[in-house]
Amino acid sequence: MSRVLVIGCGGVANVAVRKCCQVSDVFSELCIASRTKSKCDALAASLADKTETKITTAEVNADNVQEVIGLIRSYRPELVMNIALPYQDLTIMDACLACGVHYMDTANYEPEDTDDPAWRKIYEKRCKEAGFSAYFDYSWQWAYRERFEKAGLTALLGCGFDPGVTQAYCAYAKKHEFDRIDTIDILDCNGGDHGYPFATNFNPEVNLREVSAPGSYIENGKWVEIPAMSVKREYDFDQVGRKDMYLLHHEELESLAANFPEVKRLRFFMTFGQSYLTHMKCLENIGMLSTVPVDFEGTEIVPIKFLKALLPDPASLGPRTHGKTNIGCIFTGEQNGKKKAYYIYNICDHQECYREVESQAVSYTTGVPAMCGALMLLTKKWDKAGVYTVEEFDPDPFLDALDKYGLPRRENRAPVLVD
Amino acid sequence: MSRVLVIGCGGVANVAVRKCCQVSDVFSELCIASRTKSKCDALAASLADKTETKITTAEVNADNVQEVIGLIRSYRPELVMNIALPYQDLTIMDACLACGVHYMDTANYEPEDTDDPAWRKIYEKRCKEAGFSAYFDYSWQWAYRERFEKAGLTALLGCGFDPGVTQAYCAYAKKHEFDRIDTIDILDCNGGDHGYPFATNFNPEVNLREVSAPGSYIENGKWVEIPAMSVKREYDFDQVGRKDMYLLHHEELESLAANFPEVKRLRFFMTFGQSYLTHMKCLENIGMLSTVPVDFEGTEIVPIKFLKALLPDPASLGPRTHGKTNIGCIFTGEQNGKKKAYYIYNICDHQECYREVESQAVSYTTGVPAMCGALMLLTKKWDKAGVYTVEEFDPDPFLDALDKYGLPRRENRAPVLVD
Description:
2 copies of one chain form a homodimer. The first copy, chain A, starts with a strand and ends in a 7-residue tail after the last strand. With 419 residues, chain A is an alpha/beta fold. Chain A has helices at 11-20, 37-47, 65-75, 89-99, 117-130, 139-142, 145-151, 165-177, 204-212, 252-259, 274-285, 303-310, 350-357, 361-378, 395-405; strands at residues 2-7, 27-34, 54-59, 79-82, 102-105, 154-157, 180-190, 215-219, 222-226, 232-237, 241-247, 265-271, 294-296, 299-301, 324-335, 338-349, 386-389, 410-412. Chain A has 15 helices and 18 strands. In chain A, the strands form 3 sheets. In chain A, strands 7, 8, 9, 10, 11, 12, 15, 16 and 18 form a 9-stranded mixed β-sheet that branches. A 7-stranded parallel β-sheet of chain A has the order 3-2-1-4-5-6-17, with helices on both faces. A two-stranded antiparallel ribbon of chain A has the order 13-14. The radius of gyration of chain A is 21 Å and the shape is globular. The longest helix of chain A is centred in the C-terminal third of the chain and has 18 residues, at 361-378. Chain A has a domain at 165-357: 2-Layer Sandwich (Dihydrodipicolinate Reductase, domain 2), CATH 3.30.360. The interface between A and B is medium-sized, with 24 and 23 residues.
C-alpha cells in the first residue's frame, strides 16, 4: 500500500502508469503530474474503471524546485518517479531531499540546451576529464550521493531498459553465470517498421546526437574514442534477423565501467537501417539538422526545429509500428575455471505493446522497467540509502518482476559473438 | 548595325550580353533591362571598357505589357531578346506585336504558379489533350503564329541549347546526313562537380519537377508516358565518362514531334548522379519539397522556399564547378539506301566558361545560342514572319556561328547507340 507521485505524462510515463495500475496492491495511490494537466487527466480518465489504484492528477513545472516541493508536501508520496525529460532530474532530486522521499528516473541528467556553445564547452570539458565522449554524464547526479545517504533516502538512476535492464543483466551475469567477466557487449536492436520513409521515435535532436556524436568504449580497461558511426557490425538477432549495428557511446557504459572494473572490453551497439542513416546524412548535408538560426524572409528559423514540424509526430507512430525490438547483453568470461559465453536479452513486439498500453515497444521497454524499479523500492527489495544505478542492486527480484510484467528474459549459452 | 533590347539580367542573360558584346559590328547598341536596374548597371559597368557595343540600361517589370511597350517605344530596338524567366514570354510577345519588333526567347512560356491547384488542372488538361506529360507546352506561344505572320515579324522560340541547339542538330542531320531519320535520342550530360554534397544549378522547384514529373517520348509515332525516372541508361560520354541518364519529358520533344513526323522514336535523356537523386528523394520523403505552406510557430512557411534559403546560392557555384557538359543528338536512319547512325554534340568546360564570362557551362550553353540566334535574325540569315522553333530554320549558319563563338560541334559517325 504505497502512494507514488509520477512526474511526466509522455509516452514512457503513459506505459509506466498503466503498468503501475496493474499492480494496485503495491501502487494503491498514484498522482500523475506534468506541465500540462489535461494530458494527466486524459490518462487518468482512460484508466478510471480499469484499476483499483486511486489516481489523482496535478499540474507542476518541474523546472521549479519550490513547485515540486509544494506538490510533494501536499500529496505526501513515498516515492517520486521522474519520467519527464532528463532536464529536470536535479530539481526533482532537490525537492525529494527537501521532503524526505525516495527518487527514481529513467535517464541521467543533462542540461536543457546542450547546443548552447557556452554549456557545450562545460560538458565537453567534463566528459574529456572523465575520458569518454558524451554531452551528458553521471557526475551531476553522483554529486548527490552523500546527501541521499545522510537523509536515508534512495535515488535510483536510469531505470529504463538501456540504461536500466541492461545493467541488471550485467549484475545477474556476475552473480550467477561468471566468476570473472572479461567482455560485455550491449546490443540494442529495433526491428520496428512504421511504414514512413523517414520518421524518428524521439525528437530528432536526440536521434541526431546518436548518429553524429563520437563513439566510445572500454578496451583493456581504458576509454577509447572513435569517430561517429565508424565501427559497424552485422548481427543476426533472434526473431528480428540480420541488422547493421554501430558502436555508440551510451550512458550506462559510464556506471558499468565504474562498477565492473575487471571487465576488459565494454561496448554498446545500436542498430540503424541504411535508409534512416541516408536520410540523416542528407539532412545534415543540406544544413537541416543545424541548431543555428537561419534568416528566412525576416524570421529567424532553427532548421532542426522546422524539420521537427515536418516529420510525423513521434506519438503517431505507435499504432503503425510493426516488428520487434531485441535488447540484451553478451558476456564472455570464466566460471569454475572454464571459459564461457552468455547472452541474456528480451524481445518485445511493437503491436502487442500497442494493444496492451497504446504505445509501441520503444516506450514500453522503458516504462515497464520504471514500474518494476519502483516496485523494488516500494517493496524494500532494493533498500539502501544513497544514489545508485541499477547494477548496484540485486538483479534477481527485478528480473523476476520484468518476467512477470511483460519483458521476460531469454538466454542463450552459445551465442554468436560480436567481432 | 543593330539595336537590341535584352530583358533579364540573370546568369544566362549575363552570358548572352557578354557574347553580344564580342560581336559589336552586329550588336552595335544594347539596352539591358530588368526588374532590378542595379544588376543591369553592374553588368554594363563590367563591360564598359571591353566592347565597342554601346550599352544602356533600364528598369522594367516584364509582367506589365504597357511598361514593356513604353520601354520598346523609347529605345526603338529591332529585336527583343527575352532572357528572363519563362513567365513573361506572353507579355513580351504582346509588346513586340504592339510595337512591330522581332522577338526571341530561350524557354517556352509557362504560367508562374504551376503549383496553384486551379492552374495545374488547366495545364494537365492541355497536356493530356496534347498527349504528353508536362506542365508547360508550346500551345500558348503557337497561338501567336497568325498575328506575327500578319505583322511581318519573327518570333524565335526556345533558342538556348536544349531547347535550341539540339533542334538545329536535328535540322542539320535531316539536311546533310539522312534521307530518312528513324530515331532521335537527345542526350544531356552535365559532368560538372561543385564540391558540395548537394546544391542545385537552378531553383530547386525546377530541379524537382525534372525528377518528379512523369517522362514521355515518341514511339512508333505516338506519345508514351512513363513513371518519373523509371527508364535509366548508362552512357559513356566523350570527355566526361560513364554516367547514368534518365528518360525525361523535355520541351523540344513537342516541336520536334510536330516538325519530324516521320521519326519513329524520339527521346530525351538527362544525366543525374546517384547522390543528387538520393538527396532529392530524402527531401521529398520528409516533405521538404512541398509547395504547400506549413504552420511553424505561428508562421506559414513553404518548405521548398525554406530549402532554397538553406542551399548554396546557385550563382555561387560558378567559380567552384569543375568538369564538362556534353549535350547532343544521336540519329539513326538511312542515306543513299544505306542504314547509318550519326552523333553530333558539343563539349563545354565549366572552368573555361567561368574564365571567359564568369558563368559556368550551364549558363554558357544557353547564353551563347541566344546570342547566335539573335545574330541569325539581325543578319537576316533567318528571315521569315511567324512563330518558329529552331529546327524550322536553316541550321548551317547557326551551327557555324556556334562553332565560332564557343560551342563548336563534334561529330561521331559510329556512335554507341542507346538501347
